[in-house]
Amino acid sequence: MNKTTIGKLGERFACEFLESQGHTILFQNYRKRIGEIDIISLQNETLHCSEVKTWNEKNGFFPKECLHVTKRDRMRKVYFSLLQEIPALYHLTTSFNLLHITEKKEVRFYSSIF
């Protein structure tokens, strides 16, 4: 499988996981010129902006390294762009998350990682 196919499969697992936890998926691959947020979901008055990483743990996996300063800044800018487009979301609490999909198709959810 190529990297794109693996990534799409990982995002599908991530969406299924989030829905099983009571999230409503609002957007997948929400893109702006400045960046992208893989999944934007809503759960209990919290807007979750999630990055999905499908990663082979044999190569080592360090969640904080996946969301380096540049990636975090881009996610924030995309989030603020979303708020400009949909002002009704302003009142929600926001959580920036990471979903790690393992080679065994397990989902590890890191909430409010930054």
TrEMBL record:
<protein>
    <submittedName>
        <fullName>YraN family protein</fullName>
    </submittedName>
</protein>
<dbReference type="InterPro" id="IPR003509">
    <property type="entry name" value="UPF0102_YraN-like"/>
</dbReference>
<dbReference type="InterPro" id="IPR011335">
    <property type="entry name" value="Restrct_endonuc-II-like"/>
</dbReference>
<dbReference type="InterPro" id="IPR011856">
    <property type="entry name" value="tRNA_endonuc-like_dom_sf"/>
</dbReference>
<comment type="similarity">
    <text>Belongs to the UPF0102 family.</text>
</comment>
<dbReference type="Pfam" id="PF02021">
    <property type="entry name" value="UPF0102"/>
</dbReference>
